[in-house]
Amino acid sequence: MHNVTDAGVRVPPGDGGVCDDSGMEFSRLPVRSVGEHPLNPIDRGVWPATLAPVTRLLDDGLELGAATVLVGENGAGKSTLVEAIAMAYGLSGEGGSSSARLETRASESPLWDHLQLVRNAGASKRGYFLRAETMHGVFTYLEQIGSPGAAYHERSHGESFIEFAADRFRGAGLWILDEPESALSFSGCLALLGLLKSRLADGRSQVILSTHSPVLAALPGATIYEVGDAGLERREWMDLALVDDYTRFLLDPQARLDEL
């Protein structure tokens, strides 16, 4: 696949890599960075390249650590970015693994075909893409192909989502999630947060997450980007507009309602 290239990358000691004879460490995370493919640039005058965060990614590229969280309003470009990264990695655009062949109605942007992912040499090539809006179709697809333990329709939506993530996010790999909170209660978000934290502990797994949830945005160790008209702006959790909005509403819901 032309969208992926390998690179041996040294990282500071203690960052979860494997030491060589010099005492330096090589990262074991699946993907080092994402940027525009030099041999297949996209037309900058056509959507989605006209979206500010997409333009920023194409112009400057994006380094990926163990966990990357994208937050922002609907339509800002969060899902467009995570979908494109997932597909450039070789995952199904409707959710699933690289071997999934679920295709209902094609709605994915062409951005993925113009991206290049730089892998860390020797890292896992496994991955999974979970998007809450297509999970019903993914569950049905897995039942139809006889996937082991695929009776997810027999559980509630939230329960099946958590169980599905626990089943599929095993071992090292790249785990990409698009707005999973839409399937989850508050406690469900906490459960998913704990699951993702545990999967990152081995230093060989990587998470990319788009979310409207301040709970999920608090993923330990994550680099957080606010996605919007300014492109991609790195933020601390406490400085997110998302966190401020939730905090002010919970402190005085009537005052916020009066503003509507």
TrEMBL record:
Entry protein name: ATPase
Domain of life per record: Bacteria
Pfam families associated with the record: ABC_tran
Localization per record: Cell membrane
Keyword hit for ATP-binding: yes
Membrane topology, as annotated: Peripheral membrane protein
InterPro entries named in the record: AAA+_ATPase, ABC_transporter-like_ATP-bd, P-loop_NTPase, Siderophore_ABC-ATPase
Family matches, as PANTHER family: IRON(3+)-HYDROXAMATE IMPORT ATP-BINDING PROTEIN FHUC
Organism lineage string: Bacteria, Bacillati, Actinomycetota, Actinomycetes, Micrococcales
Swiss-Prot/TrEMBL keywords: ATP-binding, Cell membrane, Ion transport, Iron, Iron transport, Membrane, Nucleotide-binding, Transport
Start and end residues of each AAA+ ATPase domain: 64-242
Cleaved signal peptide residues: none
